[in-house]
Amino acid sequence: MGDKQKSNLLITTLKHELIQAREEAKHWELLATTDDLTGLHNRRMLYDVDKKISERRSTSNSNELTLLFIDLDDFGKLNKKFGDDVGDEALRLLGKTIRKNIRETDIAIRKGGDEFVIILMGSTPELASETVVKRLQLMLDGELSLRIGDNNIPIRGSIGVFSYDQSVSPFENLKQADELMRIQKLARKASMVNPPVQNITL
To answer: Are residues 26 and 44 in the same domain?
Structure first.
């Protein structure tokens, strides 16, 4: 084998090893940012979410971003009554439901515990409230449930809807959406005691 052939073989080998190294790096990055229980992104993604948004903006027809903050109702009571395994199954079911109701370009994160974050690309809060939020809230108002033995356990939750502001940190956006979610949660709990007078929209 001549020197030129050896050089070409070395270059080809190095290119192959570089491609393989990049693929392995992506694989480990995916594992590091994936929640084992739900298959959604985990909390680590929040530190890189602005980068992820920038990467996905090119596939969106609008620069608008909407942040959804989801928190299950009385999740601690569910765990206490039925056990952690049932609680984990409820979280898996919600993760699956979220994936079914968003697009590939959207970003879904399990922040921790029973808190979930969704960033909808190219959507205003008003548009989201008429589409994704409406579907998810119907599910979280009783349509989503687990069958455990003779028990049909509804999975209920509240959603905060916030217009994502890239001029501040992701965690400041989360704080604002969290506050809106808590307002909705209080309103929903009040409506279970007293008949609702009017619909509450965010």
So the answer is: no
* Strand intervals (E) in the chain: 65-72, 107-112, 115-121, 145-148, 151-154, 157-163
Structural domain of 11: 1-30
- For the chain, the domain total comes to 2
Residue 195 has a pLDDT of 47
What string of H, E and C letters represents the secondary structure of 156-182?
A: CEEEEEEECCCCCCHHHHHHHHHHHHH
State the sign of the Cα–Cα–Cα–Cα dihedral 168, 177, 78, 148.
Answer: negative
- 155 with 111, same domain: the answer is yes
Per-residue pLDDT reduced to its tens digit, 8-26: 776 777 777 667 666 655 6
Check residue 88 and give its pLDDT: 95
